[in-house]
Automatic annotation (TrEMBL):
Domain named Ig-like: residues: 33-142
Membrane topology: Single-pass membrane protein
Phylogenetic classification of the source organism: Eukaryota, Metazoa, Chordata, Craniata, Vertebrata
Keywords: Membrane, Signal, Transmembrane, Transmembrane helix
Signal peptide: 1-25
Protein name: Ig-like domain-containing protein
Cited InterPro entries: Ig-like_dom, Ig-like_dom_sf, Ig-like_fold, SIGLEC
Chief subcellular location: membrane
Keyword GTP-binding: no
Localization in the cell: Membrane
Length: 144
């Protein structure tokens, strides 16, 4: 009986290591995240207010490298959309990236936020040949 308990414990630990909480599997669809963001967690706002979200990002080294001298575009893409397509960003009337993306500053201002905007937002960055989505660490906004 003790050996069985030990085996179950071993299997449980292995599953915990190899199948990390759904953060990578669910949001990244098995892809390696090429961008990671740093934002306050959790992020809450009052309905009807503006929400200023301090944000910075790191581009992982890959086949193409982030080059701050090239034009950098970014968008916050709401969960449920194709988070790998920058054209599926949120309405620019509701969110403005106020930080300098070429300096890896993605600070953003969400205007007149309401309950319907509650949810997960993923930052998509395009910089020359470097394209990446912060799929492993979305910005979670709750509205009260």
């Amino acid at each position: 009986m003790a050996a069985l308990s030990e085996n179950v414990l071993t299997v449980n630990m292995l599953l915990s290591v190899f199948f990390l909480p759904g953060i990578y599997a669910n949001s990244c669809d098995g892809r390696t995240p090429l961008v990671t963001i740093t934002t306050p967690k959790p992020t809450a706002a009052l309905s009807g207010s503006c929400l200023n979200v301090p944000c910075s990002f790191t581009a992982a080294p890959g086949s193409t490298v982030f080059d701050s001298s090239k034009e950098t575009r970014g968008a916050w893409i709401r969960d449920g959309n194709d988070i790998y397509n920058i054209n599926n960003g949120v309405s620019t009337n509701l969110v403005e990236i106020t930080g300098n993306l070429s300096q890896k500053n993605c600070t953003s201002l969400f205007s007149d936020i309401n309950k319907s905007q509650e949810g997960k937002y993923f930052l998509r960055i395009e910089n020359g040949g470097h394209k990446g989505t912060a799929c492993s660490d979305p910005l979670q906004i709750t509205v009260e």
